[in-house]
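Ops channel
N.P.: pipeline sanity check, posting one input/output pair.
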């Protein structure tokens, strides 16, 4: 995690000059300094201290543009000297407490040194063109302050923990879930993920080109979507290019290490995972086919639900629930099996005798997007067909059970 520059590193100008080869300034001249004025916000201020009161008053009412402020005081990253062309750090300016403050828009990276530049010639003068007095000689020479790095550059440590499913995909697979060991950045996903065929060639257009909105709240799980227009029959992309996956073949998901984590660092290592592909699943979900293994009353033994085929693990986690006879949803811990072929629910308090209901909201899907009573795919040869019985008879999972 990035931390603010410690005020102790440059508490006073004298100390800063001792470690950073500060430009010498005439006696009585203003000085540059750095302080962690808001450590809780992770922001450092670069300040001009010791300006005459009349100059501060002029600056307060000058109404300067950002460009005018930046010509007076600016900060560059690294060991750059003035005039090297490196862009200045973005930020805001204010006059406060007898000093001119520059606050960077983002924390100064403690793994980099920085250079603060102050050009006194840009200050307003009461009588333009008048000769400078001896006491104003400091206005003639620009000042610089080197801000040393306070820690070494961070070492990449974030890794891909898992990809779900782990081994076998359906020919009409809709999603993969990539799990990371730490929060990730949210940009540039599509640049770093590729699907390779058996010969090592890239399967072009396999995934839907989206970056945002596919992360969990902690930014540690990313949902990788196969292009549904290619997966679903009867859609133009499918008719033109077919499905990205073909049953009986082997594919490899490749994630390069340049994908940045939440701290802007690359992954610790690249990642590869190979899959076999099984035939497409085109039937809707049928909750009557689920098997319930009931717990004993008076215990907190888990209720176990076994599915005949793997469901979408993230949706199982989010949509399944257990209700009592009064319709109250029970508190407890629901867990999806790693294979997504089952779900267990451990109640917060012991089971009592009575009637219960295992339910799921209509968003529940299997790994091919099939829902209860509604297949994802469209069969051009049978446009009215919606499942094993040819019609939609149920749209949500509701399985009653009784503990005696």
């Amino acid at each position: 995690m990035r931390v603010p520059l410690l005020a102790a590193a440059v508490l006073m100008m004298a100390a800063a000059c001792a470690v950073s080869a500060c430009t010498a300034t005439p006696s009585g001249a203003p000085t540059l300094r750095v302080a962690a004025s808001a450590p809780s916000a992770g922001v450092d201020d670069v300040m001009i201290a010791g300006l005459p009161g009349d100059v501060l008053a002029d600056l307060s009412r000058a109404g300067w543009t950002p460009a005018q402020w930046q010509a007076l005081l600016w900060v560059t990253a690294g060991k750059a000297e003035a005039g090297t062309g490196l862009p200045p750090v973005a930020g805001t300016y204010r006059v406060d407490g007898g000093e001119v403050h520059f606050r960077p828009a983002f924390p100064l990276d403690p793994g980099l040194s920085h250079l603060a530049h102050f050009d006194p010639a840009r200050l307003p003068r009461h009588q333009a063109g008048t000769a400078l007095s001896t006491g104003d000689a400091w206005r003639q020479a620009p000042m610089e302050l080197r801000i040393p790095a306070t820690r070494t550059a961070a070492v990449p440590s974030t890794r891909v923990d898992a990809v779900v499913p782990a081994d076998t995909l359906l020919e009409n697979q809709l999603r993969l879930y990539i799990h990371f060991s730490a929060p990730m950045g949210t940009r540039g996903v599509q640049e770093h993920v590729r699907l390779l065929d058996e010969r090592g060639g890239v399967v072009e257009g396999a995934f839907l080109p989206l970056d945002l909105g596919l992360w969990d709240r902690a930014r540690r799980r990313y949902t990788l979507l196969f292009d549904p227009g290619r997966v679903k029959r009867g859609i133009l992309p499918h008719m033109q290019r077919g499905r990205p996956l073909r049953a009986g073949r082997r594919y490899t998901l490749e994630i390069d290490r340049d994908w940045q984590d939440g701290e802007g660092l690359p992954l610790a290592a690249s990642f590869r995972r190979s899959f076999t592909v099984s035939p497409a699943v085109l039937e809707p979900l049928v909750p009557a086919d689920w098997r319930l293994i009931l717990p004993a009353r008076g215990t907190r033994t888990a209720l176990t639900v076994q599915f005949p085929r793997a469901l979408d693990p993230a949706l199982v986690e989010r949509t399944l629930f257990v209700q009592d006879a009064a319709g109250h949803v029970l508190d407890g811990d629901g867990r999806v099996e790693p294979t997504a072929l089952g779900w267990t629910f451990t109640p917060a308090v012991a089971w009592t005798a009575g009637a219960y209901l295992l339910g799921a909201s209509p968003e529940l899907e299997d790994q091919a997007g099939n829902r209860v009573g509604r297949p994802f795919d469209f069969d051009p040869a049978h446009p009215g067909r919606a499942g094993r019985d040819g019609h939609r008879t149920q749209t949500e999972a509701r399985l009653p059970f009784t503990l005696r």
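N.P.: looks fine end to end. Residues 185 and 270 are 16 Å apart (CA to CA).
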